[in-house]
Amino acid sequence: MLLLAIETSTSRSSVALASSEGVLAAAELGRDRRHGEFVSPAIAELLHHAGCGITDLTHVAGGTGPGLYTGLRVGLVTAATIAATHDLPCVAIPGPDAIAHRVRHSGRRIAVALDARRREVYLGEYEPGPDGARRTGELAVGTPEEVAAALAEDLRPLLLVGDGAGPVAEHLERFAAEADVALDLHRGGPDTAQPTAADLALLAVAAVQDGRTGGSEVLRPVYLRDADARIGWDQRGRLHGGAAAE
């Protein structure tokens, strides 16, 4: 197995090569919105250093977001083009799932809060387990206060990660103080701020081994806002999630 993973849903761009033995090589670029300039040359460089060519690839994985429109399109179009051209099976991995996988051994329930711009954050909630972090509901979007209110419904120990975690943590701490309840909250560090292709590759390899692959059509971006896909709120104000764009 030689799997290529591409993750461009945030301001960071990254690509990785992986086999059944793990990640073989990875490259990242932290400069904002330079996905188009980075991805294709980075793939060529990784393949060169791995001593193989694009025809040696057996699978392709793409990060489906949620995230920035242009970045998502760059990564997913590149992944889908390679897959379609070489008739390769594909795996689609949401960015929050990749981050949650990185902290799966925390022993706490996990919340991934990613900066969605427009004073909002994307949210994914997870339960750690022996097989990794299991998402407990749909990915969602809301203001930091709305996301904190949703998380405050469960006062079990929480690990909060992602580059949108700061404002959410502030509201959670305020809610706890106002309710005079104990809050067992841990914050992730900079290494858990955004998903990377290396994280994505590890999840994708597991998906391939379990037979969970599809054609290039599975590489569809996930949008969660009104401008991208319809979302809603129930009577309690609980976050609702979105779906992949058709």
Radius of gyration: 18 Å
> What is the global morphology?
elongated
The name of the CATH architecture of the largest domain is 2-Layer Sandwich
Q: Count of helical segments?
A: 6
Instruction: Estimate the strand proportion.
Output: 25-35%
**Amount of helix:** 25-40%
CATH superfamily of the largest domain: ATPase, nucleotide binding domain
Mean pLDDT: 90
Overall tally of structural domains:
2
The biggest sheet amounts to: 6 strands, mixed
Q: Distance between the terminal alpha carbons, to the nearest Å? A: 30 Å
List SSEs in N-to-C order.
Answer: EEEHEHEHEEEEHEHEHEE
CATH topology of the largest domain: Nucleotidyltransferase, domain 5
Model regions low in confidence, pLDDT < 50 over at least 5 residues: 227-238, 242-246
E-strand count: 13
CATH class of the largest domain: Alpha Beta
Give the class from helix and strand content and strand pairing: alpha/beta
Question: What layout of secondary structure does this protein have?
Answer:
Blueprint: E1 3-7, E2 13-19, E3 22-29, H1 35-49, E4 59-63, H2 69-86, E5 90-93, H3 95-102, E6 109-115, E7 121-129, E8 132-135, E9 140-142, H4 144-151, E10 158-161, H5 165-179, E11 185-187, H6 197-209, E12 222-223, E13 243-244
Parallel strand pairs: 1-4, 4-5, 6-10, 10-11
Antiparallel strand pairs: 1-2, 2-3, 6-7, 7-8, 7-9, 12-13
